[in-house]
Amino acid sequence: MSRWVVYLYMAYYMGSLGVSEPAIYIFVDIFGRSNNRIGTHSWAYIASGGEANVVKTYDIVSQLLSHYGVPAHVIVPGSIFNTKCPTYDKERNLGFTSVSACMPGIKVRITEGSNSETVPVGVVGNLEISGPVVFKSHFNNVTATEESFLSDGWTKTGDKGSIDEIGYFTLQGCAKEVLVINGVKYNPRKIEPALDESKIPGLTPSFNR
Question: Mean pLDDT in the chain?
Answer without folding.
Answer: 75
